[in-house]
Specification:
This protein is mainly beta.
Length: about 80
């Protein structure tokens, strides 16, 4: 099982920490993550945002980035 080290959602200087939200979803069985205001609100109305997740698994550090509307989600094993 992975450990969610950090997750941020937003753009530029308007980024919110959504680590706890992503960690809770992961703990509950979700493995695919998309950039969405559902994670913690809209930190930059009217602007395209990204979701960045940093996690560790088996002592290895991994990360993923996805923009709003991107079809391929971040997959955390």
């Amino acid at each position: 099982m992975a450990y969610i080290f950090y997750a941020g959602y937003g753009v530029g200087n308007s980024v919110i920490d959504v680590t706890q939200a992503v960690a809770n979803l992961y703990r509950d069985g979700q493995r695919e993550f998309s950039a969405s205001n559902d994670l913690g609100g809209d930190p930059a109305p009217g602007q395209g945002k990204h979701l960045f997740i940093l996690w560790t698994q088996d002592s290895m550090l991994a990360s993923g980035v996805i923009g709003e509307g991107d079809e391929q989600p971040i997959l955390i094993p």
